Amino acid sequence: MSGPGEQVAEWVGAEVGAFVPLGSRDGGPWRVAVGGTEVVVKVGRRREPFVVEVAALERAAAFGVAAPRVLAADLGGGLAGHFGVVTSVVRGSSRIPVDVRAGRLRELGAAAARLHRVVVEPTAELPLRERAIEDVDFAADWRERGPAELLEEAEQVLEGFDRDGGPRVFLHGDLWQGNTMWVGDSCTGMVDWDGAGTGPSGVDVGSMRCDAAILHGLGAADLVLDGWEREAGSRAPDVARWDVVAALGTPADLGDWLPVIHGQGRGDLDARTATARRDEFLRAALGR
């Protein structure tokens, strides 16, 4: 474990006060204690994710969305060419249980529905999103490594699909269980907002459903949907096609994501199982 570098430490100290590193993975983000209160420090070389995250968290605060609050930010690259943000800590844990907890999965969907009540028009800081994790070219990866027949059928289904249809709502943009915090089966907030933006709710709904299917099996996706629809008081639109969008927004081989999944407590999953579950989720969507 390592703490923030000297220049980052000086910046955090000047912005929020003297701190004691509590440890995190090398390179951050770091959890540090300031005057008995824990905060999170993130630093990176790319400006855009920090601009998006700060704008998203400020919007979340304005509408009472459960998320970290921004305590300090450097969007000018003053940290030796790096950018940084200091946020409050959302209580709870992001570790993902092995067993299928219906109440928790419904609560995940409900938390997203509460977020999606916020209607947002696109801005430079919170752009229009048509899928999750837009800065990664998953399409190229699928063309190189994915099952050709699945990709071809999926592309045919999505041909002409208006991904900008319906109300434009506040999107997290990378909504899976590892980016949510929990106390028991109650969701206390969402973290890691650097992919946020605005767009159809299906971007987040499909992402959550795909994640649930990968981590717990196909039936778990419908528990998430049930929670979203109960909280929203309406049916989610175009579920099958947003499921296809979400499935294609993952690596062709989910072994690429396995270290992150294992780090969230799911060391029981192997690449073959995770990929097979994602493919089953995609086939089910194509069959509807």
UniProtKB/TrEMBL annotation:
GO terms for molecular function: transferase activity. Residues 34-230 form the Aminoglycoside phosphotransferase domain. InterPro entries: Aminoglycoside_PTrfase, Kinase-like_dom_sf. Keywords: Transferase. It comes from the Bacteria. The keyword Glycoprotein does not apply. This is Phosphotransferase family enzyme. It comes from Umezawaea tangerina. The lineage of its organism: Bacteria, Bacillati, Actinomycetota, Actinomycetes, Pseudonocardiales.
